[in-house]
């Protein structure tokens, strides 16, 4: 692997194109981890990278947390650190930095955030699943793909689905044998059978016409009965007079 120093344009792009560490620690952690491989930075480079990211408008609030979690002991004599990117010390420092960021990226459990992920009225089931899984990764210590979390993820998916999909999924028999992908396939069946807005308007128009026809027929029958009654009475009176 070859050493590549960070350019000013690289640093700028990384600064403006990544969300704050508090919002998405995985994103910045993944970026920095990949840069450790691709650029083989010295410790000076690492310091420059961290300083750029945490001093950006989107990262200012992260400074205390980053300072506690990433890099060597602040009390250590930095003059003794080798800045040669290929030295053993530099390699150790790079991966100590990555380990620190991994630790800082661990969030406290906040399952309320997971419960806030609700399927939108027109959101495809697969897209909803992606958002739900990301919420589990971001706001809980659980791996949503593990077998131990299968039932919890399925229940959350069903309970937070759109109403028509939820009603269908709640009627599934043998749900304990389903994987989350099986559940998504069932949800997609409902999703793809939904009416388009044009189909819905046409159906409602047809139903209104049918209702009007039924009402007209009822009125005609009622009028016929009234006329028959009037005629019968008239005939009776005529007979009485003769």
UniProtKB/TrEMBL annotation:
Q: Indicate the segments forming the Core shell protein Gag P30 domain, all copies.
A: 9-55, 92-193
Positions of region (Disordered): 54-84, 192-219
- Mark out the compositionally biased spans (Basic and acidic residues): 59-82
Q: Which domain of life is it from?
A: Eukaryota
Q: Which GO terms describe its biological process?
A: virion assembly
Q: Which InterPro entries match?
A: Gag_P30 (IPR003036), Retrov_capsid_N (IPR008919), Retroviral_Gag-Pol_poly (IPR050462)
* Protein name in the entry: Gag polyprotein
Q: Which species is the source of this protein?
A: Trichinella nativa
